[in-house]
Amino acid sequence: MKKAVIYARFSSHSQNEQSIEGQLKECLAFAERNGMRIIGDYIDRALTGTTDKRPEFLRMVEESKKQRFEFVIVYQLDRFARNRYDSATYKAKLKKNGVRVLSAKENITDDPSGILIEGVLESMAEYYSAELSQKVKRGVAISASKLRFTGGAIPLGYRIDENKHYQINESEAPYVVKIYEMYASGKTGVEIFKFLNDQQLKTTRGGTWNKSSLNRILVNRRYLGYYICGEQETKGGIPQIVNEELFEQVQQQMTRNKKAPSARKAEDAYILTTKLYCGLCGSLITGVSGTSRTGEKHYYYKCFGYKQGCKKKNIQKILIEDAVIEDTLKLLDDEVIDNISKALHDLLQEELKSGNISRLEKLLSDNKRAIENLMKVLMDGKATDLILAKLDQLQKEQKDIEQQLETERTAYLDFTLPQIRRYVKRFKHLDYSVTANRQALIDTFVNKVYLSDDGKSKIRYNVTDFHSGSFLERMVGHIGLEPTTPAMSRQYSPN
C-alpha cells in the first residue's frame, strides 16, 4: 500500500480540538478509499495558515527528505497554507522529495484540470484572507467587548480563569519581569536564552527560548495591562505585570540594538521553476544567475541535462517568462472563464453539503432529539440523578455545538457564481509587472512548458476539461512558431 501522512491544523480564532478530530476522521476515510496506509500525523494547534512558522508543518517538510511517505493528506487545501508563496514553495520541496499533497474533501484530481482547480482554490483562499479575517473578528466581538480571552497562545505570565478572563500566573509573572530587567540592563539575547533555558522554563508553545520567542515577550503591550484583540486595545483590561518605565527602557534598548538592514538583494524569483522542460532531452530547466565582467548580474534558465551533454542553449529569464505570460493570457477567453467558474462553484457547494457545517447540523439535531427524549422522561415523573446529570451534559454540549456551528458558518466563504467569475476574470487584468501576480498566473494555468531552440516550443495548460469541443490546439500553445510576434521571436536569444 502507498504510504501517507496526515497534516491537520486549527486556527486560534475559530476552531478547537474537535476540529482536529474531524479533520483526522475525513483524512483517514480518504486514505482508506484510496488504498493508502497512514504511517503518522502532524498536527499544529492554534496556529494560522497565513504563515509557515508552524512547528509540525516544518517538521513534516523536513522528514519528507527521508522518503518514508509518498503523500500528505490534508482536510482542505487551506489547512496546508493560505499564502500562495508558502504553498508553492513547500509543495515544490515536497515534490522534490517525491511527496504530493492531497485534499480529502475537495476531490481534486491529478490531471491538468485538477491542478487548475487546486491553483484557483489556493489563490482564492489567500485573496479573501482579509475578508475571512473580518468575518471571524465579528464572531469574537462579543467576547472582546467583555474583555474575555478569544483564543490563541496564552502569554507567559498569565492564566485564563473559568470566566475566560486574564489573571496573573504567579509562578510565571516573575520571569516576565526578570526578562525585562535583564534586557534593560544590557544583557544579550544569548544570555537571556541561557538563563531561561537553564531554569527549564518553556515558551508558551512548549519550546526552548530563541530570538523570536524573546522578542514576542519584549514588545507585548499586554504586560502594561492592555487587553488586545485585533485592533482593539483597552487600557486596564487585564492585570499589569511590567511598569511603564521598565517597558519604555526596553523599547529604547531594542531600538539601539537594532541594526540597519543589510544591503542584500532578494534573489529574483524564477516563476517557471518546476514547469520548464527541455525540448531536446526532457530534463528540467532551472533558474540560474551569473555576473558579467562589468559586475552586472544576469538571470536565465539552464537545462539541467547539460551534465549529460545536452546542447540546449540558455534562455534569458525575462524573455521566456514574458512570452509564456502573454500566451497564457490569450487562453483566458469568456468561455474558459465561465466553465472554470462553474466548476469552482459546484465544488464549493458540494463542500458545503459534505463539510463541517453539515456534520455539526446533524450533531445538533441529534443532540436536541436526545434532550427532548429526556425531558419527556422527566415529565413522566421518572427523574433520577443519572437522568438529570445526562440532561445537564447534553445541554452543555448543545451550547458548544451551536458555538462551533456559528463559527463555521461565519468562516465559510459562500460565493455566488458571479462573484467567482469576477475573481477568475481578474487574472486578465492583473498588473503582471508584479512578481506575485506573474507567479499566480503561471501556477494556476500552466502545466508544463517544453522549450526548444528550433522555434517549436509548446505550452501544456491545465484547462483541458474547461472548453467545449476539441481543445488540443488550445491545450498546446505554439510559442516561437510565429516569428512576427516580438515576444515570441526574441525569447530564444541565448545569453
Give a quick precis of the structure.
With 495 residues, the chain is of the alpha/beta class.
Count of separate DSSP helical elements: 18
Q: Report the count of strand segments.
A: 15
Helix content bin: 40-55%
| Average predicted local confidence, pLDDT | 77
How much β-strand is present in the residues?
5-15%
Globally, the shape reads: globular
Strand order of the largest sheet: 2-1-3-4
Oligomer: single chain
Strand-pairing-aware structural class: alpha/beta
Alpha-carbon distance between the termini?
48 Å
Largest sheet: 4 strands, parallel
Structural summary, described in words:
α6 (129-145) packs across α14 and α7 packs across α10 (244-257). The two termini are 48 Å apart. The chain has a four-stranded parallel beta sheet with strand order 2-1-3-4, sandwiched between helices. Helix content is 47%, strand content 15%. 29% of the residues are buried. The chain is globular. The chain has helices at 17-33, 55-63, 77-80, 84-96, 112-127, 129-145, 173-184, 189-198, 211-218, 244-257, 317-331, 334-354, 356-379, 385-411, 417-425, 435-445, 472-475, 486-489; strands at residues 2-10, 36-45, 71-74, 100-103, 158-160, 166-168, 226-229, 232-235, 276-278, 285-291, 297-303, 315-316, 446-451, 458-461, 476-477. By secondary structure, it is α/β, with parallel strands linked by helices. The longest helix is centred in the last third of the chain and has 27 residues, at 385-411.
